[in-house]
Amino acid sequence: MIVEKVFQALSSTVRRKILAYLSGSSMTAGEIAERFDITKPSLSKHLNVLENAGLIQGEKKGQYIHYSLVQDNLVNTLNGFVQEVCPVSRPLKKESKGKVNSNN
Asked: What positions does the domain HTH arsR-type occupy (predicted)?
């Protein structure tokens, strides 16, 4: 399910920082790598996780891949999750009119 992929992607500080950088503009892997002290294979893995979660997309321009944020996917996924778990974001169930059980 996409929600699990998104939360897995967001579980990493590096990936959250990549999303923050990409929120400003698209960047190549090299430009992203300049901001981190990690190996290229590690960065590639982080970019793959973000791409598989649908949070970023890569577009080949010449010899470089430019990564950009897929903002609607992040917003829609998180909004859907909040609506699912937050009672104020959905209609409340009607309480039964029966006797209240004090054991609950």
From this structure: 1-89
